[in-house]
């Protein structure tokens, strides 16, 4: 196939691109919905909110809320100084988990382990808190 001009080639590329699925739409939104930071693990979107009252975690899969009562969530915090602590998050209704009174210091790394209570399927994500 030959093209008579660059415009024809660009038009063909543009039309072909319209038919491609958007990677950001395929797995749901990665925009923070609660003012936190977001990471993905496969089809699971996890938002971590580090606030003055504690830590909150929101979980979605395929852009649908995951009921926190159906899962367990563990937070592993590693500070800049190397101190490590594990915190069990509690279901807080809907797709929310929380650990009241827990704060994550700036510069820490946070690992999240989610376990489905029925299937025992595991998902994990890591965050760096600025």
Give the SSE map.
Layout: H1 6-18, H2 23-26, E1 37-41, E2 44-51, E3 54-61, E4 64-65, E5 71-78, E6 84-91, E7 96-100, E8 109-116, E9 122-128
Antiparallel strand pairs: 1-2, 2-3, 3-4, 3-7, 5-6, 5-8, 6-7, 8-9
Description:
The chain is mainly β and 130 residues long. Helices cover 13% and strands 45% of the residues. It contains 2 helices and 9 strands. The protein has helices at residues 6-18, 23-26; strands at 37-41, 44-51, 54-61, 64-65, 71-78, 84-91, 96-100, 109-116, 122-128. Strands 1, 2, 3, 4, 5, 6, 7, 8 and 9 form a 9-stranded antiparallel beta sheet that branches. Strand 5 (71-78) and strand 6 form a beta hairpin. The radius of gyration is 20 Å and the shape is globular. The termini are far apart.
């Amino acid at each position: 196939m030959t093209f008579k001009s660059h415009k024809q080639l660009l038009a063909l590329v543009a039309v072909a691109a319209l038919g491609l699925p958007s990677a950001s739409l395929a797995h749901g939104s990665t925009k923070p919905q609660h003012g936190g930071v977001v990471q993905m693990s496969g089809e699971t979107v996890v938002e971590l909110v580090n606030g003055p009252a504690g830590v909150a975690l929101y979980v979605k899969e395929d852009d649908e809320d995951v009921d926190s009562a159906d899962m367990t969530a563990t937070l592993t915090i590693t500070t800049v100084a190397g101190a490590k602590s594990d915190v069990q998050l509690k279901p807080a209704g809907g797709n929310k988990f929380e650990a009241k009174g827990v704060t994550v210091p700036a510069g820490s790394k946070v690992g999240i382990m989610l376990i489905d209570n029925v299937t025992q399927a595991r998902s994990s994500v890591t965050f760096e808190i600025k």
